[in-house]
Amino acid sequence: MNKTQLLPITEDLLKLNTFISNSIKMYKERLQTFSDSESWKMLAYCLLARIILFNKRRSGEAARLTIDSYNSRPQWSEQSTTELKNSLTPFEVKLAERLAVVEIPGKRAKKVPVLLTDEVRVALDWLISKRTDCGISGNNPYIFACSKNSTQSLRGHDYLSKMCKLADLRNPELITATKLRKYVATVCQVFDLTETESDWLARHLGHDIRVHREFYRLHESTVELTKVSKLLMAVDEGKVSTFAGKSLADVDIDDLPQIGKVRMDRIVRQSWTVKFHRKTIHLQKSQRMHLLQNSQRMLLQSGLYRKEVNNHGHQKKRKLS
Q1: For the CA atoms of the chain, what is the radius of gyration?
Q2: How are beta strands 279-282 and 307-309 bridged, if at all?
């Protein structure tokens, strides 16, 4: 019998996000007052944990982000063609303006894309500017450098585990880099992703993609900024269940208020109706059953919602505790 794989609980991920964001603000303020190596290291740890949590990447990959890679990150407005810009929705343009993508070395010397939010980017600039004052070696190429004279990077896995315990989560042991990637791959099945969009997500998560699959020839950094970021932000804010049956193109700026600097203060849970541009459409029985058969089992494991379906295919909502 196959062993059931438990995935992180959405409520835990949102709680951890809030805890890390508050810690970033606290250590940034402390570093403004006291330029000491301990405050610098704690801010670096918090930022590293936030990048891992948002991107759902391997902790070792995020830790290898160098100052040179960060400073030479691609500017989408300069590298994208006019035709490509015109093909983007207003929401995707907004994403490209608000987010940054950095490429770092991954497994087998492959370049790994990492997305940075405004909050993280501003804090990283501050962290880099305080390196000399806090005694960080100028010979250390990594942004998340070990203190003193070391030329090594910090270990993100250790501190992510520590923050999970400090945040008082229900199941902190379930939040690991590996389980985070599986969590995204699972909950994003709610979206009506095309094969190409699934490839974009798989590539970002570092999953294998079939060698001979066809790709749209978009610039990779623009794909990360405008396409993959939609999925990551939906997961980051706990809103995946509201997009059941939507294609990626149907997600607009009103769906993800983080872009408008409005933070979610609760988990959104919604019944099996699909909202297309503020119009509510009730799914037909065949559509409901198709969605249930393909995604309900895995979403239940993720703690997004709980549903009951009777023998006639009708659904009853059950309030989550």
Answers
A1: 20
A2: unpaired
pLDDT at 141: 95
Phi, psi of 186 (to 5 degrees): -75, -55
Give the angle 167-171-176 at the CA atoms, nearest 5°.
Answer: 85
Structure letter (DSSP) for residue 145: B
Using left for φ > 0, alpha for ψ between -120 and 50, and beta otherwise, residue 60 falls in alpha
Separation of alpha carbons 277 and 306, rounded Å: 25
Task: With cut-offs at 50, 70 and 90, classify the pLDDT of residue 194.
Answer: low
Q: Sign (positive/negative) of CA torsion 229, 235, 239, 245?
A: positive
Residue 10 to residue 14: CA distance in whole angstroms: 6
Give burial (CB, 10 Å; 0-12/13-18/19+) of 81. Answer: exposed
| Exposure b/e, 91-126, CB count within 10 A at least 16 = b | bbbbbbebbbbbbbebeeeeebbbbbbebbbebbee
> How far is CA 320 from each of CA 131, 186, 198, rounded to the nearest angstrom?
46, 20, 30
CA 130, distance to chain mean position in Å, is: 27
Cα–Cα–Cα angle for 222, 224, 230, rounded to 5 degrees: 110
From CA 41, how far away is CA 231, in angstroms rounded? 30
Q: How far apart are CA 277 and CA 44, in angstroms?
A: 40
DSSP letter assigned to residue 88: S
207 or 299, which is more confident? 207
Query: Looking at the domain that runs over 10-86+99-174, which CATH code has it been given?
Result: 1.10.443
pLDDT tens-digit profile of 42-54?
999 999 999 988 8
CA 201, CA 281: separation in Å to the nearest integer? 27
Element (H, E) at 90: helix 90-98
List, by residue range, all CATH 1.10.443 domains of the chain: 10-86+99-174
